[in-house]
């Protein structure tokens, strides 16, 4: 397995863990507890920005490379890109719903749960599709030169899209969320 695919799969596992923390924090509402808005907003920062800055640019590069190498195998590209957009729209709606919450005001729990469930359902299905179809197709059809380019760019700290600095920052944020989220 390439370093690139291994990183993308690790990103998926990290996102699943973050969603678990978010689920627990939102579930506190059903138990009559207050919502920790700072924690929720921190998690949402991760969910919004990590994919946009660190994960999807790599996938998009791979999708373009796959489409060039094998247009038939690359047919999944449009579907995956569309799902990236749908996920972004749902999480934007969730962020808006959370931002509208005022301290002490009643929270529209059903709306929060519905939006969160829609996001989680689509994300899980999306990651499964990538791991079952997209990643194996990329490994089958991309040539070593394609992998060399992306792996070199991933190691380049100065690259604004593929550089490691943003990834390191989000790994640190992930660790803080997990440690803090367990409390």
Provide the fold topology.
Blueprint: H1 3-27, H2 37-69, H3 76-99, H4 109-141, H5 144-155, H6 164-181
Overview of this protein structure:
The chain has 183 residues and is an all-alpha fold. 79% of the residues lie in helices and 0% in strands. Helix 1 (3-27) runs antiparallel to helix 2 (37-69), helix 1 runs antiparallel to helix 4 and helix 2 (37-69) runs antiparallel to helix 3 (76-99).
Per DSSP E runs of 2 or more residues, the count of β-strands stands at 0
Q: Give the CA-CA distance, first to last residue.
A: 36 Å
User: How many whole angstroms does the radius of gyration measure?
Assistant: 18 Å
SS-derived structural category:
mainly alpha
Discrete helix count: 6
Mean pLDDT: 83
Poorly predicted regions: none
Roughly what percent helix? over 70%
Q: Largest sheet at a glance?
A: none
Order of helices and strands: HHHHHH
Shape assignment: elongated
β-sheet strand percentage: under 5%
